[in-house]
Design brief:
The protein has five helices and no strands. It has 71 residues and is mainly alpha-helical.
């Protein structure tokens, strides 16, 4: 009985855990303009929840670097 309970508990725990989001580097975002635009849009649409995530910070840095290169 105890083993059955533990198995069910672990199954529920795995099912409820969030899948880790892939973190893109600044270089990857500069190389893929569509991905950069998509991330910038998502980050600007929900800054309270996404603003401090690594992807949003890297997207902002990549956007800044891309604008700097165009000057």
């Amino acid at each position: 009985m105890r083993q059955h309970f533990l198995s069910v508990f672990l199954l529920v725990l795995v099912a409820c855990s969030k899948e880790a989001e892939r973190v893109y580097t600044v270089g990857e975002l500069i190389a893929d303009k569509a991905l950069l635009a998509d991330l910038i849009g998502k980050c600007r649409h929900n800054p309270g929840e996404l603003g401090n995530t690594p992807n949003c910070q890297n997207a902002a840095a990549a956007d800044f670097r891309a604008r700097l290169e165009r000057m």
